[in-house]
Design goal:
The chain is an alpha+beta fold and 161 residues long. The chain contains two helices and ten strands. It is globular, with a radius of gyration of 21 Å.
Length: 161
């Protein structure tokens, strides 16, 4: 009964995330440059100020479903992860261990914290992912403690479905 309840809760969370992803996503904008002429009071030529917005800053590149694998002490596990990005914030679900994660995007890097439940035990810790240039995969690492992340040998990689 307990496993059925967990599966139903997980399915409900996945559905809610999928609905939110469809309702809150916004299309990416193209790189644009806007030029503004500023008049001066001395009679000299106007100054030009350029403002540039980048597509990468507004694109929701982490959104979607990913096949993920991770290692711990020489053992490899895999699961499906669902990412939902809103601005620079990313939340997600990991199907393997009723896991969740929350992170912040900076450039092609996503860093944050994960949680997981294995039976009656729960775990948590930091992670860091680096997105490939084609946005189709990521490589990363994870740990149980923030102070261990920099030297972690635990990998967590994904390929977009």
């Amino acid at each position: 009964m307990k496993r059925t309840t967990s599966v139903v809760i997980l399915a409900g969370l996945v559905c809610a995330l999928m609905i939110c992803a469809g309702c809150t996503s916004t299309p990416a904008t193209n790189n644009t440059t806007t030029t503004t002429h500023v008049a001066t009071t001395t009679g000299t030529a106007p100054a030009t100020v350029a403002a540039t917005s980048t597509a990468a800053a507004s694109a929701q590149v982490w959104n979607g479903t990913w096949n993920t694998t991770w290692t711990e002490d020489g053992e490899t596990a895999s699961s499906i992860s669902h990412f939902v990005q809103a601005g620079s914030n990313v939340t997600g679900l990991n199907t393997a261990d009723n896991g969740t994660f929350n992170g912040t995007v900076s450039g092609n890097r996503l860093a944050g914290n994960w949680t997981g439940v294995n039976g009656t035990e729960s775990s948590e810790g930091p992670f860091e992912f680096v997105l490939s240039t084609d946005n189709a995969s990521f490589t990363g690492k994870w740990a149980y403690n923030p102070e261990d992340l920099a030297n972690s040998t635990y990998s967590w990689d994904g390929v977009r479905v």
